[in-house]
Amino acid sequence: MGKVFVFVNQKGGVGKTTSAINIGAYIAVGGKKVLLVDFDSQGNMSSGVGVSKKKPTIYELLAGQSTIDETIKHSGVKNLDVISASIDLSGAAIELVDQENREYFLKNALAPVREKYDYILIDCPPSLGILTLNGLAAADAVLVPMQCEYFALEGITLLLQTVKKVQESINKNLVIGGIFFTMYDSRTRLAQDVVMQVKSYFKDVVFNTIIPRNVRLSEAPSHGEPICVYDPNCVGAKSYQRLAEEVISRG
């Protein structure tokens, strides 16, 4: 059965979608079958790998209007498939609120293909609402991207409290797969201090690889390509390749 990772951070702009795309792409390049699940109505994961947001998307799948095989789309990277999202998903968030077992819609939708993929990576919206709860319920492990700034420290505490509540009530098998730093600027004292504080507190939960600020990483999504295709020799690409290897090594 494939391993399911969910990328979560209630703060936007921390590199969550970029990380999900590029970690997934490098795992796929390494020969593993990977499914990216865009579970954010902005659909940035979909466009970031050049996949259409046209129907059927994750919304149609959840609404029972398409099967999962009809919903899965192929990216330009070998072994890398995608379930895309569109603005329609914002409507699903409203519709799920009053549904029975509303936290498990995504888990149930993905169940038929868990045997087909080695890794399923879910990108959630920057919030701790019903869509993110669905992602946490469907996952085996949480991956937390963290920007090196002061308020990120407060945010990570709130996020981990939410994860603990999910572990107690919705998904008892959920674990923290790891925390990793993004947009790191070694020239600033604050970035260095944040890394030191988080590592001292969370210890082995923190990945060794740190993703630096890199222009090429910012450019790649506008071309609909993961960094391993857009510019595999840049420092951002090499960093994500190492991080993907760490994710695999942790199981």
TrEMBL record:
InterPro entries the UniProt entry points to: AAA_dom (IPR025669), DNA_Partitioning_ATPase (IPR050678), P-loop_NTPase (IPR027417)
Superkingdom assignment: Bacteria
A Pfam family reported for this protein in Swiss-Prot or TrEMBL: AAA_31
AAA domain residues: 3-176
Name under which the protein is recorded: Cobyrinic acid ac-diamide synthase
